[in-house]
Write a structure and sequence with these properties.
The complex is a heterodimer of chains A (about 100) and B (about 120). Chain A is an all-beta fold and about 100 residues long. Chain A has strands at about 5, 10-15, 20-25, 35-40, 45-50, 55, 60-65, 70-75, 85-90, 95, 100. Chain B is mainly beta. Chain B has strands at about 5, 10, 20-25, 35-40, 45-50, 60, 70-75, 80-85, 90-100, 105-110, 115-120. In chain B, strands 2, 4, 5, 6, 9, 10 and 11 form a 7-stranded mixed beta sheet that branches. Classes of the chains: A mainly beta (about 100), B mainly beta (about 120). The interface between A and B is medium-sized, with 22 and 20 residues.
Chain lengths: ~100, ~120
């Protein structure tokens, strides 16, 4: 089975900071990786698909990169509304999540 | 508006059954693969099952194989999840989700979720 390991599991940063979340995959599989944002009590929201393509309406401060076994989601300038848990995913496997908080 | 609305959740005893429904609107239902994804209280997301646009292919996570059945009715724009032999560890919010075409199951549209509690 494919394993997806996210790091860090939580991050605390200041407004305006650059935040990077990493997803390491146990098997190499090209560029297929998706990223979601989930706020408490809400359904997840697709941010990035195919590793680097932004979903319609997603703020430009969110970007994705990577291929093979290592992928990342970057928030270029953290905003208060970005407080959420972020998940990577490919097909039937999700990463464990990264909780982003404001310092 | 493109929308998915789940229903059918509730409290059920261990060993019992429940049928979840997901009503779709605002898009051509028969064009898309659909999935069920669940989230246990305080935990992460877990994909449960998906079904091909025409209903001819179905896939499940190992933990629900033989107990859950995914189905769809394209004439009624509806997705279903029949859950039998329920266990305490099946307690979760269940979401239906639409998969973005030609991606690695990018879930582009989600319902609001329906809570399933398995407890005596």
């Amino acid at each position: 089975d494919i394993q997806m390991t996210q790091s860090p599991s939580s991050v605390s940063a200041s407004v305006g900071d650059r935040v990077t979340i990493t997803c390491q995959v146990s098997q190499e599989f090209s560029h297929y990786l998706n990223w979601y944002q989930q706020k408490p009590g809400k359904a997840p929201k697709l941010l990035i698909y195919d590793a680097s393509k932004s979903e319609t309406g997603v703020p430009s401060r969110f970007s994705g990169s990577g291929s093979g076994t290592e992928f990342s989601l970057t928030i270029s300038s953290l905003q208060p509304e970005d407080i959420a848990t972020y998940y990577c995913q490919r097909y039937g496997t999700f990463g464990g999540g990264t909780k982003v908080e404001i310092k | 508006d493109v929308q998915l609305v789940e229903s059918g959740g509730g409290l059920v005893q261990p060993g019992g059954s429940l049928r979840l429904s997901c009503a779709a609107s605002g898009f051509i239902f028969s064009d898309y693969w659909l999935s069920w994804v669940r989230q246990s209280p305080g935990k992460g997301l877990e994909w449960v099952a998906n079904i091909k646009d025409d209903g001819t292919k179905k896939f499940y996570v190992d933990s629900v194989k033989g107990r859950f059945t995914i189905s769809r009715d394209n004439a009624k724009n509806s997705l279903y999840l029949q859950m039998d032999s329920l266990r305490a560890e099946d307690t979760a919010v269940f979401y239906c989700a639409r998969e973005k075409i030609a991606t690695a199951s990018a879930f582009e549209i989600w319902g609001q979720g329906t809570m399933v509690t398995v407890s005596s």
